[in-house]
Amino acid sequence: MTAMDPRTQRLLEAPIVPTVLRLATPNVLVMITQASVGLIETYFVGKLGSDALAAMALVFPIVMLMQMSSAGAIGGGIASSIARALGARRRDDADALVLHAMLIALGFGLAFTAALLLGGRWLYAQMGGTGASLDAALVYSNLVFSGAVLVWLFNSLAAVIRGTGNMAVPANVTVAGAAVLIPLSPLLIFGWGPIPGMGIAGGAAALLLYYLGGTLAFWMYLRSPGSLLKPKLAGVRLRWPLFRDILRIGLVGMIATVSTNLSIGIATALSGHFGPNAIAGYGTAARLEYLLVPLAFGFGAPLLAMVGTCIGAGDRERALRAAWVGAVMTFAITEAIGLAAAIFPRPWLMLFGNEPAMLEAGTQYLHAVGPLYGFFGLGQVLHFASQGAGRLFWPVIGNLARLAVAGLGGWLALRWSGDMVHVFFAQGVAFVVYGLVIAATIAGGAWFGRVGWPRSPAALIRRIGLT
């Protein structure tokens, strides 16, 4: 039997709280930094005017769909497969999974490129884009999605490394890349000296250069002596069971990812009934929601690795205990952020613009939804932990329930009252439904059999592994 790496051993035996915090700290940093990449772009693009800002609001949900699909859904399937293989001491399978992951990333990247180049104009028009804002959205979208493969390879290789329990390398690469992007983005947008300004297209070009550099850095690490995995591009026999092991988790996770972004896309379209400034205001405010996704992923990625490794080794109790530790931490942090945003919405909004209609729409959203952000964080982190367990049925149900409440509730609110704030209240209720469905079903035993809720508080505590 293959000897177990010390990093894998720590996932199985080290105290849970210190281990989760040690792994989550660099991962939270990397995820927030990666999300800030988009905020950097939005900040500088906002200087081009409200049409450019509205264009970013139209394209951003689709960019985040790609980002969350590659990093969270398929990336989660990759990390889970590698963690379980290492936990079960199948080192050869873990090495081979790297190439399988890269081929999956290549296929999805090309699919995103084709879909958005061919259907981008129709999609953004359906989301409320018109005139100059629609034209600017297409300029940005066509350039970004022409390089979709780079985004997919970047996030897939980062997931490979996280699956081994190594959160530091993705953190270092992402932070270094963001440090380059901060001056590069305004340089390409506005120009300087002999370098001509590209406008909104400059932000897209800077973003693709960031992903190209990061992808090369991850591959160089995987080929270095310091990497736990030893991947090869030649001489590896492709095996359907390895593709299936990634895709059975990743494709189910894609349903949840699509639901999350479709909820925001629907809210963007509903906001479009009140004009481009309302789209810009909602889109700018919802950027904070998108920051919660990488924050939850910051805790979720180490939980995914720990849960997957523990389940691969047969230790169900430790896997469940780790999930609840991470859930409590993430709920507390995301709820604090939401409350702060609800109390002080304008400092965030005014980072990106000062149009009165934009500020009013964004303020209404944060007042209505911010106090419920904790439930969104709860659902997100338990979704990632469920990827590690290889059990995603109920997280998907929770996401679909959120989509139904946000979409149908928002439409009814607009139809019955014609008031934008009621549309936003529907989004907040959807968060509560999302978080509680996933938490309740895991507590009821969804990971290890049928859902059956304990009949007493003491039995519940025993069920979730806290005693």
UniProtKB/TrEMBL annotation:
It is found in: Cell inner membrane. One of its GO terms (molecular function) is xenobiotic transmembrane transporter activity. Its main location: membrane. GO terms for cellular component: plasma membrane. The keyword Ribosomal protein does not apply. It is a multi-pass membrane protein. Signal peptide: none annotated. NCBIfam families: matE (TIGR00797). This is MATE family efflux transporter.
